[in-house]
Design a protein that fits this description.
Mean pLDDT: 91
Number of domains: 1
Number of strands: 2
Length: about 400
């Protein structure tokens, strides 16, 4: 007996009902302060990876922000909900750690784009999604929530050298991050994220001492080759595929249905694969930052006030404005973004994302979700998913055979 991961619940997290009134409300895009506060709540993932790819890997700032901005606008218009856009996290982390250049990163983005366009356009991903029960999806979401918390801790305790904050005392960064997290957690319904990000931008501007060059940074077409595609496939794409499949497609669709009920009918795994696939073809074509969707970002946007596609559209317009308006100066400017604010918002998003597990009723479902989450976080998500699926469907097959006898 299957427990579907994308069936609409009678009542979503936080008391949001899957009813026609909600669906009609989300159809109307809102562009207000509350939507904007929810829009900026997920910058804790985007900014650090974007800065590192610009500073360490030499990508063009305009090329880095352009795919994210375009996908945010497209997601808002297509899904009519706060569907998030994030960098490919495993892909980005490996590219940064190993110092890959723009050619390998572009090749990896093109491969990711092609793979997910095929998976989404063929309908294969939607069919595969049907075999993943809710406890396994909740396990993926637990793994992502823990990853967010780990990223927040690392920002506060081992700050990247690309940020001006990296020279500050550790107690200041950690204490500031905790203070931001506490304030954001308890005041998230009062547009606190918008206030914090506004402070961060003021701090970023004050910390920048270089000349302000208006206009976009130069975009150079990548130099693609067979060695670049080979290196990208092995080192970047293979580690990223399980996370993108499970988190960007399956878990994001599930989170949307949990939070917004029938209003999330458009947010299907296959369609998410198509939109992120197309965005990565753009990223690969201009040597930019590979992007995806993400269930953790959905939680961040919604928890801080976003309820419609107006939130991603507004953030996308901001990113496009930065890319084309001051892209030539972004390399120095983004490094001044205060790390305690990034870490605090990221930690709250991770903690709230973990609370998705609370709708699991049976102890065995809790055990399976926790096992998937911990194995995925500490070891390998692909192994966790494979083992969990074998266990889930194996137990059900044995039960069916026992019932027949």
């Amino acid at each position: 007996m299957q427990s579907s991961s994308i069936a609409a619940p009678e009542s979503g997290v936080g008391g949001i009902s899957a009813n026609p009134d909600l669906k009609q409300a989300t159809e109307r895009l809102r562009f207000d302060r509350t939507e904007l506060a929810g829009a900026v709540a997920d910058l804790g993932v985007l900014v650090p990876i974007a800065v590192a790819l610009i500073v360490k890997n030499g990508l063009s700032p305009t090329a880095v922000l352009l795919p994210a901005g375009l996908l945010y606008v497209a997601a808002g218009l297509l899904y009519r909900l706060p569907v998030p856009v994030q960098p490919l996290k495993a892909f980005g982390a490996i590219a940064i750690a190993q110092g890959f250049g723009s050619s390998e990163i572009a090749a990896g983005a093109l491969l990711m784009g092609g793979i997910f366009i095929v998976l989404g356009g063929s309908g294969l991903l939607d069919r595969v999604a049907e075999i993943f029960p809710k406890p396994i999806i909740r396990g993926v979401q637990l793994s992502v929530g823990l990853l967010f918390c780990q990223l927040a801790w690392n920002l506060a305790t081992a700050p990247p050298t690309a940020f001006t904050d990296h020279t500050r005392p550790q107690w200041w960064l950690l204490g500031g991050g905790v203070a931001v997290a506490v304030a954001a957690l308890f005041l998230r319904r009062r547009n606190i994220s918008l206030f914090l990000v506004a402070l961060a931008f003021i701090g970023m501007v004050l910390a920048y001492h270089g000349p302000l060059a208006l206009g976009p940074s130069a975009i150079h077409l990548p130099q693609l080759s067979i060695p670049a595609f080979t290196a990208a496939a092995i080192a970047l794409v293979l580690p990223q595929l399980p996370l993108t499949f499970a988190n960007s497609c399956l878990a994001t669709a599930d989170a949307a249905r949990t939070y917004f009920g029938s209003a999330a009918d458009r947010v299907r795994p296959g369609r998410l694969a198509l939109t992120l696939g197309l965005a990565n073809l753009v990223a690969g074509g201009i040597g930019g930052m590979p992007v995806c969707h993400g269930a953790g970002g959905m939680t961040a946007h919604r928890s801080f006030g976003a309820r419609t596609g107006g939130a991603p559209i507004m953030l996308g317009i901001v990113l496009l404005g930065l890319a084309f308006g001051v892209g030539a100066s972004l390399t120095g400017m983004l490094g001044g973004f205060p790390l305690p604010i990034l870490a605090g918002l990221l930690a709250v998003a991770g903690l709230l994302h973990i609370t998705l597990l609370r709708d699991l009723a049976e102890p065995s479902h809790w055990a399976l979700a926790i096992a998937v989450g911990l194995i995925g976080f500490f070891s390998n998500l692909a192994i966790a998913l494979a083992a969990a699926l074998i266990l889930w469907w194996g137990v059900r097959a044995v039960a069916v055979l026992a019932a027949r006898h």
